[in-house]
Structure formats: structure tokens, C-alpha cells
Amino acid sequence: MPSTGSQPSANDDTNIFNKWSRKFSVVTGLGITEEDRLRELETHQNNVCNRWKKELMNHSPAVTFMLKRLEQSGCPVAPKHLSCQPCGFDRSGGFVPSAGITILCQGKFWSKTHMEHTLVHELVHMYDQCMFQVDWNNLRHHACSEIRANSLSGDCKWTRELRRGFFSFTKQHQACVRRRAVLSVAANPACPDVATAEKAVNEVWDSCFPDTRPFDEIY
């Protein structure tokens, strides 16, 4: 009995072979110049980043919640405001207040869940900027937003900390939030040293850590 479905053609097999041959060359560097390999790798990373971004913006409960709250607050976020780019620093993302965009560092995400946590983190910064007009050169302002973003985004879930090499059963979440907030504030050009960053985080901790807006509780 003849099949009613379409059969793979020789062209299909050739296209599949060429696709995987190209991927093999990009991964191994064989049969391709280093310049071409890096260009192909950057294109691949950008495609993955944008595909995951689209999926998260449409289907992630935490991301869609934040997008809805930002829109209701008068600061709608479109895909163009979340830019997948290569980054020259060892971070997965960053908010650029002067441009009103978040940079998603393509190639820095080990999973879509990691990207989801990063995206929610940066959306919390965007929410704070929208609602409270944060002065990012004011270390106390910056510290408060970092405390909230690290606490609410999923960045400090136990599994994330375990992957980073931090293992604790007592007050793990608070310790992670505090540590990561200090690191971020210390990287602020307006911050002279880590001790100053720690001081800023400590000064706002009691008021900012319990503040889960716009969530009802820690995500």
C-alpha cells in the first residue's frame, strides 16, 4: 500500500549533513578559520538567546507576571528592550538605566531556567526604576534594588547556590542575597571598595529584604 506521507529526499539528507558538518566545524575548529568559527558561534548563541527570550516572554509565569506589572505601572517592556548581545564580562545580564534596556549575555546561560532567573532579576531592576526612579549612583538605592532582585528572581534558590559551590541549610537564601548584592554594589563605579558596598547593603537590608513588590512573596 503506498504511503500517504512525504518521504525524505536526497536534498533533505544533504541539508541535514551540511548542518551537522557545519556545527561540528564550529565546535572543533576543523575545516574552518578561527574568525569564521567565532562568527558562526556568535550567531548560534544569539539565535538561542532570542529563541529562549521569546519563549520566556510568552510562557514563563514569573516573566509574564513581571511584564504585566511593568505595563500596568506605565513602563511596558517590548522584546526590543531585552537585547541579546555578546558580553565581555563574566555576567549573564545587566540593566542599562540610561538606555532603558536589559542586556542578556548570549552564551552565558547554561539553561533556559538560568536565563529565566536572570531575566526576572533585570525586570525587577526595571520595575524599581519605573516605580521609584532609582538613582543608581546612590549606593543605598542600588543596594536596595540588588537585594530585591536577587531575592525575588530565583537567583538564590538552593540549586543555584549548590552549582556555585555554596552549600548551607541555615539562612541560605539570605546569605546568598546579601553576598550577591554586595558584589553588585561593589562593581558600581561610584563605590570605592567592598567595605562601602557592605555598609550600603547593611543599612537598607531591614527595609528592602522584606519588600517583595510586585510579588506577594519570594518567587
UniProtKB/TrEMBL annotation:
Assigned GO CC terms: mitochondrial inner membrane
TM region positions: none
Protein family (similarity comment): Belongs to the peptidase M76 family.
Organism name: Thelephora terrestris
UniProt EC number: 3.4.24.-
Subcellular location: Mitochondrion inner membrane
GO molecular function: metal ion binding; metalloendopeptidase activity
Membrane topology of this protein: Peripheral membrane protein
Main location: mitochondrion
GO biological process terms held by the UniProt record: mitochondrial protein processing; mitochondrial proton-transporting ATP synthase complex assembly
Keyword Oxidoreductase: no
Pfam families: Peptidase_M76
Role according to the record: Has a dual role in the assembly of mitochondrial ATPase.
Protein name, as recorded: Mitochondrial inner membrane protease ATP23
Record carries keyword Transmembrane helix: no
Superkingdom: Eukaryota
Keywords recorded for this protein, A-Z: Hydrolase, Membrane, Metal-binding, Metalloprotease, Mitochondrion, Mitochondrion inner membrane, Protease
